[in-house]
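User: Is it possible to get a 3D structure for a protein together with its bound compound? The compound here is adenosine-5-diphosphoribose. I've pasted both below.
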Amino acid sequence: MADQINQAADLIKGSEKIVVFTGAGVSTESGIPDFRSPGGLWSKYDPEDFTFQRFVSNEKARHKYWQMSTEFYHSLQSAKPNAAHIAIVELETMGKLDCIITQNIDGLHQLAGASPERVIELHGTARAISCLSCKKRYDRDGVQERIAKGDKAPRCDDCNGLLKPATISFGQSMPERETAEAIKRSGGCDLFIVIGSSLVVQPAAYMPVVAKERGARLVIINREATPHDYMADLVIHGSAGSVLPEILAQVK
Ligand code: APR
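Assistant: Yes, that's possible. Here is the predicted structure of the complex:
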């Protein structure tokens, strides 16, 4: 592992334009469960119950969605950025970070001090609520209060449309601007570092492929193997919260 840490540090030292790509694995050490590890969210809930189509077409599905989302939000409220998030911000402080492309909806990169304009949230954010019809934005805590008072599927005060966290559910269209920007930045970096993602959900999992095809070096830091390990220049199987600070310590 020490040799891999040194290799990763050398790759970072030799790069100026790094894209960091994160998944739920970067936040598990902050107490937020991921999706596909044993005990992850998809071992407790069936993703089929949480598709966008189910949400918009079925009141009972909306109740179930808000139950799961409220449980997730409570874990979010007490979550703090961990050593992995902080190590990633150090790359920005060094002037080496082009951007962070994240699949996460927890906002912990920004809370750790990453510049918001350098964080591309491919799957939106759970920290805001919007109306699916008129797009009006609501403060999440205010909507959670309505739910705590018994409103099982809140609607918009202005147009009575369905309120939903500003996240992208399965079956919901991806945010066009963020997706295009992520592809562009993946294609323009000299080093692409994946941290804590199973790389099984598209189009997010396409980003490391774009980077590699356009000549970037690819590093994957993940607890388990991913389908893209074969194309990486370096794979480190370990916990982000301990591996990343060790790498940054070698870089400095
Ligand atoms: N350090 C390193 N890797 C970790 C850690 C950790 N502390 N904790 C978990 N992991 C790894 C797991 O081994 C797993 O391979 O992170 C990966 C997380 O994978 P997923 O749970 O599939 O999460 P993610 O890749 O972000 O999922 C993508 O799927 O359900 C959708 O929209 C959801 O954004 C999510 C998308």
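Residues 23-25, 28-29, 34-37, 40, 103, 123, 196-198, 201, 222-224, 239-241 surround adenosine-5-diphosphoribose (CB under 6 Å). The chain has a mean pLDDT of 96.
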